[in-house]
Structure formats: structure tokens, C-alpha cells
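Supplementary Methods, section 5.1.

A reviewer requested that the exact input to the structure prediction be made available. We therefore reproduce it here, unchanged from the version used in the analyses.
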Amino acid sequence: DCTMGSYRWKALPLALTALFAALSFYPALCPSRGVLFLFFFGYLVLVPGALLARRFAPGARGAVLALASFVLGTAAVFAALFVLALFRLDITLIRIIVPAAVVALAVAKRREAEPEHARTGMRDGRVGAPALGVLVLIAIVSALVLRAEDPILYTADSADHMAYIRTVARTHEALPDRFYYADGGMLTRDIRKGMAHSLWGALLALTGGRDAVEVWTCIALAGSAFFIIAVYAAGMLVFGSAWIGLAAAALAVLLYDGGLAKLSLVSMGAGYIFGRAPYVAALAFGLSWITTGGRSLLILAVAAAFAASCSQVTHSGVLLFVVAYFTYSAHAH
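The structure derived from this sequence is encoded cell-by-cell as follows.
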């Protein structure tokens, strides 16, 4: 059984790598740009993230494993994009960098480690009523996102983010020098824009498209799903109850940041809104590590904090405040 499981962990990533290679160089093979965009997101973020989670968080199961794969994969691809931006290289090089890393992780021999879920709060993967409830919640939100799309109101800044992602896709630059103004270089860069925009622009460029409107709803689908998973997993990790996680996820959808009335889950293309999922994950993994310890939780907390900070600089400031608060509290008591 272990041999079959190990074989699947090698065969599936290699098969997905072959499919990704074909579609990334010949995107016309897929008739739907939206489906292609979501597949590229899944391969470039979730596949390497799952392989990293298998090594650094072997005790993760179910929603915690999904969240671990998301934060590790997001942190890894953000780091790759940052290096490409640092050396002013074409960001579509991730279609070579990430597959090489996936193949290396898939074929490399993994040192077996004792799962830490028993003492770190990582739960098993049994499918129960709360897990099914989360899946239903994700399905409902996805249907609402597809129906609402984005109204692109004059009071919102969706058009601004779409224009920036289009510029990234057109120039293949992670942080374009020219966007609002013709000249100015680095001084005109928008501090609100981060690696999330670079990721969306790179994925859009790989699909052969340039117009972010075509994939805006796809960004919302991916972002809203993992925000719900993050809140649900946080309830499991911090409170040890899947039911609390389900209640928290439902309340977050209905009430947080205006809830459904504000359509905040539709605007995941904005770096701050997308960064809420890794931000919640950083808090959940961090608090769980403080209370129970464990190398896996510390690695996941750091990766999630890095991903959130790269999404939008505001998250780094909030996380620094939280760390300072707990540090002060620990010394005070």
C-alpha cells in the first residue's frame, strides 16, 4: 500500500508535468482560456506545494494538507518570481523553473519522518459532515462568483488591477516600470502591487492571452476557495474542532469585509484580498505552533507569512504587529 502511494506521488506529478509542458508551449490545444488558466494555477502552485507539504508537513491531512500545499506552493512561486524580477528576467521562465522543481521533488528519495499531527494539531483526513459542509460552501460561493462576475463599479479599483495584470502579461515583467506614467522608473511603482499580480500576469501570458478580464473570474474562484479552506482549517488547528471551522468559514463568507453584499470574494485579483488566505493561514499555523510546537507548523507559518506579505505589503505590517504583541505578552507574563 505504501509502495502504491509512493508510486502515485511520483507518477501523477510527472504526468501533469508532461501535460503542462504541452499546454504551456501550445496553449491553443485548450479551447478555454479560463480552464487553461486554472490548470496552470493548479500545476504551478498546488503541485509543487503538495510535494513540499509531503516533505515538510507529513502529518497534514484533509483541509490542512490543502492549505499547506497552497501556502508552500504560493510562497515558492512568489520566491521564484521575485528572483526573476530582481534580475529583470522574463517571468514566463517559471514554465521551466517550476516543472524542473516538480520533477526533482517527485523523483528524489524522501526521508520518512514520523507524522507530527498527533502533537501539533494536524488532523486526520476523514471525511465527515463539516468537511462536506465546506465543500458545499465552496460550491455555493463558486456559483455566486460565476453569476456575479465583477461589476467593475466606478467606486472600486478592479479596472486598475486588471490594467496592471495586463501590463505584466504584455511586458513579461514582474514589476513593470511603466504603468500609470510614461516615465519615472521605479519611483512610479505602486506599493499595493506585489507578487500576486506578477503571478496572475505570468499565468495570463502562458495562456497566450493579454486581457485580464477573460480570467478575472477564474482568479476569484481560486482565491475564494482557498480563503474558505484557510478559515475552516484555522478553526481545526486553533480550536481543535471542525465544526468551529465550518461555522467560521460560513460567517466569513456572509459577514467578513461586507460579506456577500460587498462582493469582496469576487475581487480576488487585488493583492490584499487574495493575501487574506495566506494571512489567516499564517495566524492559524503560528498560533498552533506556539501552543503545541512542531517543526512542520513553524515552516508552514513562515511560508504563509511570506506569501501574505508578498501579496500585499499591508499584511506584512499586520503580521509584524501580531508577532510583536505575542512577544511582548510572553515577556510580560
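The longest helix spans residues 62-86. These observations are discussed further in the main text.
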